[in-house]
Automatic annotation (TrEMBL):
Name this polypeptide is given: FAD/NAD(P)-binding domain-containing protein
Naturally occurring in which organism (per UniProt): Zygotorulaspora mrakii (Zygosaccharomyces mrakii)
PANTHER family per record: APOPTOSIS-INDUCING FACTOR 1 (PTHR43735), FERROPTOSIS SUPPRESSOR PROTEIN 1 (PTHR43735:SF3)
Pfam families: Pyr_redox_2 (PF07992)
GO cellular component: cytoplasm
SUPFAM superfamilies xref list: FAD/NAD(P)-binding domain
Keyword Oxidoreductase: yes
Keywords: FAD, Flavoprotein, Oxidoreductase
Signal peptide annotation: none
Length: 379
């Protein structure tokens, strides 16, 4: 007699979706369970090293074939999840995928020049070549938003075009709504924010601080500063990146997301709004205060164990909590090109201490974790 298998559907082939799918397929008995991964692309896109792509065009440092990092025990379904409820997914192909447990790992939408597989599917080369060409041709590039990603991209441009920036042949500007670069969200201490700000402004990057930039409706190359249309700057290339934009497929589950659009989860990754308890979410799509890969090992481990407990014991399962940065500053390092970076480490009662720049340069800036990329998905 054939046993009816239970299905775990994982949506999104990012760092978290792929590694959780791999872990589950390794730990669950394949005669009773199946793990299905819904992916939009045949490739995975490793974001931490993507800030260098417009100047390096070395796409192998950020893109890997999915087949090289996914276990054969995971069934991949190439499609896009359009909507879901508590028992099935509706795919773009109009197929319906029933599940017993759903794990949402759909990440964020990232604007140009980073992009995501959600935007370019398999055709990363056309997308990234276009971004690199636009950057190469532009004389004045303006970034609206001086957060982590834009600051790192500008650091890369500064390293590549330092002579042209010094001579005034090429200009780069950042418009940022605070007195220092990086978000004023409590995760970054003042010292690291000041160091990043001073380094970029001291090396020829024009900063418009405490300013809000809006692209003019009449002229796509004009940015209006604040509400006064007479205060504006012109740039031949404008990138607007003002933070993380969670990517949640349509659903009609009340209070699924918070008012910023993030999926509301508990520290055990279970979605608050799902009464059945069978929907989990992980990574950038969640309302965790900290988003990033520093807690990857712990998060993947805890989610895997919790899903297995839930599959075996149902709603009575005791689920474990992960370790996440719910208060205070976090460890962090900002890379500003292959040789320069600034970092911080939180210390109880002291706030943060700076990580020496040569340590950040060696540990992060040189390779942007490229050597760890494959393991981030596989392990
Ligand atoms: C430029 C940049 C640099 C960064 N640098 C660092 C760093 O130095 N250190 C650090 O800790 N963190 C860094 N981060 C953050 C870190 O990369 C992210 O937190 C992490 O990659 C999030 O992984 P994820 O799996 O949640 O999402 P993603 O990697 O974004 O994966 C989401 C996946 O879901 C897919 N998807 C979305 N919607 C659907 C759908 N409807 N159907 C099917 N599939 C779908 C997407 O195509 C994508 O493959 C950086 C982020 C960026 C953008």
């Amino acid at each position: 007699m054939e046993i009816e298998k239970k299905t775990i559907a994982v949506v999104g082939a990012g760092v978290f979706g792929v590694s959780v799918a791999n872990h589950l397929s390794r730990e669950l008995d394949a005669t009773s369970y199946r793990v299905k991964l819904v992916t939009l692309s045949d490739y995975v896109y490793f974001l931490p090293s993507a800030v260098r792509l417009t100047v390096s065009r070395d796409y192998s440092s950020s893109i890997l074939p999915l087949k090289d990092v996914i276990d054969i025990g995971v069934e991949t379904i190439k499609d896009k999840v359009v909507s879901f409820n508590t028992s099935n997914l509706i795919l773009e192909s109009e197929a319906v995928l029933d599940f017993d447990v759903l794990i949402l790992a759909t990440g964020s939408k990232w604007p140009d020049p980073i992009g995501s597989t959600f935007a370019f599917g398999d055709d990363y080369k056309t997308y990234l070549d276009k971004q690199a060409s636009r950057v190469q041709e532009a004389e004045h590039i303006a970034f609206i938003g001086g957060g982590f990603v834009n600051s790192e991209i500008v650091g890369e441009l500064l390293f590549k075009y330092q002579d042209e920036i010094k001579s005034g042949k090429r200009r780069i500007s950042i418009i940022h709504n605070s007195d220092k670069l990086l978000p004023a969200n409590g995760l970054y201490g003042d010292t690291v924010r000041s160091k990043v700000t001073d380094y970029l402004s001291g090396n020829g990057i024009k900063l418009y601080l405490n300013a809000r930039g809006t692209i003019s409706d009449d002229d796509p190359n004009q940015i209006i500063l604040g509400d006064d249309a007479s205060k504006h700057i012109r740039a031949d290339l404008i990138y607007r990146g003002v933070g993380i934009a969670p990517n949640v497929p349509t659903n009609h589950i009340a209070d699924f997301c918070d008012d910023r659009g993030f999926v509301q989860v508990q520290t055990n990754f279970q979605v608050n709004a799902c009464k059945e308890g069978n929907i989990f979410a992980i990574g950038d799509v969640t309302n965790f205060r900290y988003h990033g890969i520093m807690k990857r090992d712990n998060w993947v481990d805890v989610l895997t164990k919790n899903v297995i407990s839930f599959m075996k014991e149902g709603a009575n399962a005791k689920l474990a909590s992960c370790s996440c940065y719910e208060i205070g500053e976090t460890p962090g390092a900002v890379s500003l090109g292959p040789k320069t970076g600034f970092g911080q480490f939180p210390v109880p009662f002291l706030g943060t201490v700076s990580i020496p720049s040569f340590v950040v340069a060696k540990a992060k800036c040189k390779s942007l974790f490229r050597e760890k990329m494959e393991d981030m998905y596989k392990k």
